[in-house]
Amino acid sequence: MNLKHLEAFLAVIDTGSVGGAAARLGRPQPTLSHQLRALEDELGTPLIERGGSGGPTLEGHTLVPIARRMLALASDARKALSGLSCRIAAASNIGTYILQPLAQDYRETCGKAPLDIWIGRNPQAIERVEDGRSDIALTEWWDDRPGYMATPWYRDPLVAIVAPSHPLAKNGRITPRQLLGERMIGGESGTGTGRILRAALKSLGNDLEVDETLGSTAAVKEAVKAGAGISMVGTSVVRDELSSGRLVALALSGRTLEKTYYAVRRLSDMAPDRTEGFVDFLTHRV
């Protein structure tokens, strides 16, 4: 299947017309129309409604997500085969709060393969390594599945965060029983924080209950600042708020909690000049 034909099809879908698609792609309109017809002939079905809305047919709707994936994979293949970039899939908190200064330091001091960074949720980062779209996944947990190398490179102490106006803010600590009595706010799922906290509190015979899940660390911090509750986070994600006094960190009495972050690679895909050079940089700089 010709990728240019798929590009033409998606451009028509996105712009709503053949003329708009031709302008977006910088192709003559007759050429783009020919490419669209060629795709329809190859697949044996109309993909665009003619004479009406100009939108996709039922078959066209089915093709849209497939076409987008195919073009994305083609782009990934070009990057991988160029041999120039190290493709990193970073979990959201790592990519947002930890990786950026390290990536810039790597670019300035090592002068090796450029970094192509994708940021998303932990499970998605691992999926990208599994299917070959990324070389390294930087994750907040690892489950020891076979066929992979997972190198620990960062340990992030976990703290409870509260608003400065919270009654416990001046204590500097919170007991496990006090924590269980607070309104707990959760962030992004799949980060491993809840699992670590539940294991630490298991001896009390009470399971940790999350009263509200907001889906992102940024939203959690804003909710805690507003006095909506308490949350457990890695120290790395609240450095600015703690230094400015907008949030207060409380250590968990009698417990030392931390998360270990991993650089995950498939054993079959480890490349010394790209992946291992960056992992070595991480383990020695952090």
Description:
The chain has 286 residues and is of the alpha/beta class. It folds into 3 domains: 3-81, Winged helix-like DNA-binding domain superfamily/Winged helix DNA-binding domain (Arc Repressor Mutant, subunit A, Orthogonal Bundle), CATH 1.10.10.10; 86-154 and 260-285, D-Maltodextrin-Binding Protein, domain 2, CATH 3.40.190.10; 156-258, D-Maltodextrin-Binding Protein, domain 2 (3-Layer(aba) Sandwich). The protein is built from 12 helices and 10 strands. It has helices spanning 3-15, 18-25, 29-43, 58-82, 92-97, 99-110, 122-130, 176-180, 193-201, 217-225, 239-244, 272-285; strands at residues 86-91, 115-120, 136-139, 148-162, 173-174, 185-186, 212-213, 231-234, 248-252, 258-266. Strands 1, 2, 3, 4, 5, 8, 9 and 10 form an 8-stranded mixed beta sheet that branches. α9 links the parallel β6 (185-186) and β7. The protein starts with a helix and ends with a helix. The model has no long low-confidence stretch (mean pLDDT 89).
